[in-house]
Amino acid sequence: MAKPTQKELIEELKLKNMKLEEDCSKLIKACQDMEKRLNIKIDKSEDAFIASPTYLQMKRKICDLESKCDMLNKQLKRKNARENQKHNERGAGAKTRFTSPTQLEEINLLYDSGTKMTDIAQHMGCSVATISRALKNHVKTES
Question: What pLDDT does 32 receive?
Answer without folding.
Answer: 92
